[in-house]
Specification:
The protein has 205 residues and is mainly α. The chain has six helices and three strands.
């Protein structure tokens, strides 16, 4: 029988905590983006509600989730970056991990020194980059469609406040924007999901 500690066994508590924060954060982002892309928005479209109600619901979701998701991105990416920094400058292969083996033929256990994966920092560096990429991806590839939907919501709310009784939101355009937003947001979920998968490899390495 032998006990093989992984490369994270003797890391400082702050580094181990950062691993957890980063992985949990990116996993939460993955679930949030995927759920909105493949469940929330499709459910709104399937409800056959008027376009005005759809865009107002989208605006509410967007404003309610913007700050928490941005905070999660910062926390997760920063945690991964910290772990990558630490493992780069203090690689685990500089300190051996003791392995104790017990054999039935000997009364005394034998001990050897293993040297864990030395490039683990690159895994966390990749995860930090993937999570951080969510922000420029959103700005570059989703900004236009989000502005279109939020602008439609503002127009609908203005018309409602003024009690004009005029349909100012084009149904076809709104549904096209939602379809575009769905698949672009699914890619965003993929970025966070890839970061999570890579981090999990680092956790078990």
């Amino acid at each position: 029988m032998s006990a093989h500690p992984n490369s994270g066994t003797f890391l400082p508590p702050a580094v181990r905590l950062a691993k957890i924060v980063g992985t949990v954060g990116s996993g939460a982002l993955t679930g949030f983006y995927y759920t909105h892309s493949r469940h929330t928005i499709p459910s709104l479209l399937a409800s056959n509600a008027p376009a005005e109600k759809l865009v107002k619901a989208f605006k509410h979701i967007h404003h309610a989730s913007h700050t928490p998701t941005l905070a999660t991105i910062i926390a997760s990416s920063s945690s991964f970056a910290y772990v990558a920094y630490y493992l780069f400058y203090y690689p685990p292969n500089h300190a051996g991990v003791a392995t104790t083996t017990f054999a039935s033929s000997s009364f005394f256990p034998s001990t050897s020194i293993d040297y864990p994966l030395g490039d683990e920092w690159a895994l966390y560096g990749a995860s930090a980059l993937l999570v951080a990429l969510v922000v420029p991806y959103t700005k570059s590839f989703m900004n236009a469609v989000q502005k279109s939907l939020l602008g439609a919501a503002e127009s609908a709310e203005t018309t409602e406040r003024r009690k004009l009784g005029v349909n100012v939101v084009e149904e076809k355009k709104v549904r096209e924007d939602f379809e575009e937003w769905k698949w672009r947001s699914t890619i965003r979920a993929g970025l966070a999901g890839a970061a999570t998968a890579i981090a999990v490899v680092g956790l078990v390495a």
